[in-house]
Amino acid sequence: MVNERMLGLGTARSVIRELFEYGKQRAAVVGAENVYDFSLGNPSVPAPDAVNETAIRILQENPDIIHCYTSAQGDAAVRARFADSLNRRFDAECTADQLYVTVGAAASLCCVFNGLACPGDEFIVFAPYFPEYKVFIEGAGAKMVLIPPEIEQFQIDFEAFEKAITPNTKGVVVNSPNNPSGVVYSRQTLERLAEILTAKSAEYGHAIYLISDEPYREIAFAGVEVAWLPHIYRDTIVCYSFSKSLSLPGERLGYVYVPGKVTDAGEVYAAVAGAGRSLGYVNAPSLFQQVTSLCCDMTADLKVYEENCKLLVDSLREMGYHVAQPGGAFYLFPRSLEPDDLAFSERAKQFDLLLVPGSGFGAPGHFRIAYCVQTDMIRRALPKFKALADSYK
Ligand code: PLP
Q1: Model pLDDT for residues 52-69, shown as the tens digit of each residue
Q2: SS3 state at 100
Q3: Separation of 217 CA from ligand 1 center, angstroms?
Q4: Fewer CB within 10 Å: C terminus or N terminus of the chain?
Q5: Mutate which of 154, 175, 226, 243 to test ligand 1's pocket (most atoms within 8 Å of Cβ)?
Q6: pLDDT band at residue 79 under the 50/70/90 scheme
Q7: Protein residue with least CA distance to atom 8, ligand 1
Q8: Alpha carbon of 41 to ligand 1 centroid (Å)
Q9: pLDDT confidence of residue 12
Q10: Do residues 299 and 89 make contact, with C-beta atoms less than 8 angstroms apart?
Q11: Average pLDDT over residues 114-141
Q12: Where in the chain is the domain with CATH 3.90.1150.10?
C-alpha cells in the first residue's frame, strides 16, 4: 500500500512528456529533421561561457570546500551577491538575510506554499497557468482556485478575480512573462491587482501574499517593461530561478526573496526555511550557488527568442491564426483552429507538428508553442502550420 496521491503523480505522464516521447518515436521513423517538436520548454541557447569558466575556476581553486554542505539558507557571500544585484538593478532594498537559496523556482514555490499554508487556505492562480502549481499547492495541503483566462490579451479577468477572493485566500500567484502565453502583465494590470489585494487584505484583516513566479523575468522583448512587483504591492514574495536566464535548468538554482516590508516578514522567511527543511532540500547545490552568484548580472544570449517569436507571430497571423501579443519568455499560445484543442493537437501530429493542447494550462481552445528551438526548424515548420490551417478550410 502506497500513498495514492503520490502514486497518481508518479504514474500519470504529462501531456507534454507524452508528446515528447511520441516525437522521439516518430523521429526514428521519418528522421529527426522531419519532426517539429514544440513541446518542451528547455532553453535552446547555451549558458554564457563565463558560467563554465567560473565553475572550472572554482573547482580548481577550492577543491576542498566546494563540495561541502552550505548554510541551509544558502552561503552568506552568495546571498550578499544576489542582494547586491537586486539592489543595483531594481532598487530593491534587499539584504542577504531576506534571501533563501533554493533548487530552482519549483522549489522556491514549494517552500513558499508549504511555508504559508494553514488548514483551509486557498491560493488563487490565473489561467493560463503552469500546471505544476496545482501539484505544488495541493502538496502543501491547500486548495488552488483557478481564475478563467481573459482570452483577448491574457491579462486578468478582474471581475472573476474579485469574486474568487475569500477570507481563506492566503495568496495569489502571478507569472509574468508567462508560461504558456508569453504575455507580460502591464503596469496597469499589476496596479489594479495590487489595489484589489490591498483592499481585500484590509477587509479580511490579514495579509494576502502575492507570489511572483519569475523564471522568465530576464526574457522580455524590446520596449516591454517587466515591473518589479515589490514596488507595486507590499506583500510580494519573489520566487526566482536561473534556469532560463542563464540556461541552467539542470543545475537547479534559484531563490525566494521575502522583502523586509512584507507583513510578518521574519516569520514568513523562517517558515519558508522550515518548509525547505521539511521537504529535505538541505541546501541548494554548493558549486552552482557560487557560480550563479558570480554570474547573476549576466544572461545567456537571449535575443534569438525574440527573433523566433517575431517570425512565428507574423507568419501565423498571416495564415489566419489568432495569437495574443507576447512580450517575453519563449512560448506562444494561439487559438486552436477548432474548439477542441486536444483534437487539434492530434490533427497537428499528422503534419509532424508537436503542439501542446491548452486544456492542461486551464485554457481550452488554445495550444502552446515552445519556440526555444533552432530558428531553422521554425522556418521549415511554417509550411506545416500552413497545411494544418488549410486542412480546416
Ligand atoms: N514556473 C514556471 C512558470 C515555469 O515555466 C517553470 C519551468 O519551466 C518553473 C516555474 C520551474 O522552473 P525551475 O527550473 O527553476 O524549477
Answers
A1: 999 999 999 988 889 999
A2: strand
A3: 11
A4: N
A5: 243
A6: very high
A7: 41
A8: 9
A9: 86
A10: no
A11: 97
A12: 4-47+301-390
Give me the pLDDT at residue 226, please. Answer: 97
The yes/no answer on whether domain 50-294 falls in CATH 3.50.20.10 is no
> In angstroms, rounded to a whole number, what is the distance separating the alpha carbons of residues 198 and 210?
11
Look at residue 274 in the predicted model and tell me its pLDDT: 98
- The residues lining ligand 1, judged by C-beta closer than 6 Å to any ligand atom, are 41, 104-106, 130, 175, 179, 213, 215, 241, 243, 249, 254
CA distance 379 to 224: 25
Q: What is the mean pLDDT of residues 213-241?
A: 97
Which amino acid appears at position 307 of this protein?
Answer: E
Q: How far apart are CA 237 and CA 222, in angstroms?
A: 26
Per-residue confidence band for 172, with pLDDT thresholds at 50, 70 and 90: very high
Say if residues 389 and 63 touch (Cβ distance below 8 Å): no
Residue with cell 495590487: 194
DSSP per-residue letters across 196-224:
HHHHHHHHHTS--EEEEE-TTTT-B-TT-
Just give the CATH number of 4-47+301-390: 3.90.1150.10
Task: State how far the Cα of 183 lies from the Cα of 176, in Å rounded to an integer.
Answer: 7
* Alpha carbon distance 86, 102 (integer Å): 17
Residue 178 Cα to ligand 1 midpoint, Å, equals 10
Span 29-46, pLDDT tens digits: 999 999 999 999 999 999
Distance from residue 106's CA to the centre of ligand 1 (Å): 6
Task: Determine the length of the chain.
Answer: 393
Give start-end residues of each CATH 3.40.640.10 domain in the chain. Answer: 50-294
Phi first, then psi: give them for residue 126, nearest 5 degrees. Answer: -100, 130
Ligand 1, residue 254: give the atom nearest the CA. Answer: 15
248 pLDDT more than 80:
yes
Query: How many angstroms separate the CA atoms of 62 and 138, rounded?
Result: 41
Place of cell 550557488: 289
